[in-house]
Amino acid sequence: EALRAEGSVEVKAVGVNERDCYEQANYQAQIESRRAVEICENQANHLLHCRVVASRITDHGSYITDVYGSGSFDERKSTENECRSTSVRESELNAISLCESKYRVRCQLSRSGEVTKHKTAKRRRFIIVGPKEEYQICRAQAAAQPESRYRVQCAVQVLAKPSF
Fold this sequence. Notes:
Radius of gyration: 22 Å
Shape: flat
Low-confidence stretches: none
Mean pLDDT: 90
Strand content: over 45%
Helix content: 25-40%
Number of domains: 2
């Protein structure tokens, strides 16, 4: 079982052109290679030491895709306006945060937050007893992309296996 251990990490990057993208991805792959080794050693129950055996390009410079974020709001004693604006703001922040963690660069909104669901519900404040109160429930979605100077995305996969 330990002999079949394998650790794999895929690193996504963006660049102004393909060459820049590959340089960024390879740089990040060097940083993340330790994680691939740790995954491999955990699978081998720390009986064997692992090392990086391969690093290969898995995405050859494709168009950058949107990263979607969502936001929600479910509160009593609030207005529909507050519900909508809070869920939209949360979805936009979430989209930017997810984009920046995925690509490791500054991101901007590519699609503003939009409420996808709104309803007013009546339910008890406490599970069994108490008066029914109005709750505003909203869901929103937004999209983000790396800054406009970045034109392509690419990915590199790092593979670690036991060394003998």
